[in-house]
Amino acid sequence: KSTPIRLNAIPKKGYKFVGWKVGGTTVSTDEEYKLTITASTTVEAVFQTRTTESGLYFNEVMAANSSTIQNENLKYEDWFEIYNSSSAPINLAGLYLSDDPATPLKYKIPYGTPDSTTIPTKGYIVFWADNESQDGPLHCPFKLDKSGDTLILSQVSSSGTVTTLDRLTYV
């Protein structure tokens, strides 16, 4: 008898997912792994300590967006870009965004959608500050203040230390 299963890798704070192994061989590096079990099988999720990310910067901000660009729901919402200046793609899943310096861990960018949360080398991702995080991983649970605000990108180490990767204050 065969049994289809789906596995999702969700690292603890300060760690990142590396891959799935079966019998010591890496079979996938995707966070989600689908397989069909036909016999006794051991699948191992491999994690490693996440080093402090570098090269990530707030690039553009649009508060009170009324006509510039629309999100996938055809709404004009506040937005900001994060730029990756490094020489490798960076998956932002597990990092944090906030508009409140007193609460730097306001929004954890979720795991499970690396196609949406990975910034290519020298590329950028647009996040929507629309207070509608239920709309997907690129929608933050806060809005931007058109008269001025602060954006914070943070990372938590395996020891619990919070590091600010970038911070932008606009007026």
What is shown here, in short?
The chain has 171 residues and is mainly β. The protein is 2% helix and 45% strand.
Walk me through the structure.
This protein has one helix spanning about 115; strands spanning about 5-10, 15-20, 25-30, 30-35, 45-50, 55-60, 80-85, 90, 95-100, 105-110, 120, 125-130, 150-155, 160-170. It has about 170 residues and is an all-beta fold. β2 (about 15-20) and β3 (about 25-30) form a beta hairpin. The longest helix is centred in the last third of the chain and has 4 residues, at about 115. It is elongated and about 60 Å long. The chain starts with a strand and ends with a strand. The relative contact order is 0.20.
Number of strand elements: 14
**Total helical elements:** 1
Poorly predicted runs of 5 or more residues = none
Secondary-structure element order, N to C: EEEEEEEEEEHEEEE
Q: Judging from the principal axes of the Cα atoms, what is the shape?
A: elongated
Write down the Rg.
Answer: 18 Å
Range of helix content: under 10%
Task: Break the fold down into its secondary structure elements and pairings.
Blueprint: E1 3-8, E2 15-22, E3 25-28, E4 32-37, E5 43-49, E6 56-62, E7 78-84, E8 90-91, E9 96-98, E10 107-108, H1 114-117, E11 118-119, E12 124-129, E13 149-156, E14 162-170
Antiparallel strand pairs: 1-4, 2-3, 2-5, 6-7, 7-12, 8-11, 9-10, 9-13, 13-14
Which descriptors apply to this entry?
4-stranded antiparallel β-sheet; 14 strands; mainly beta; 171 residues
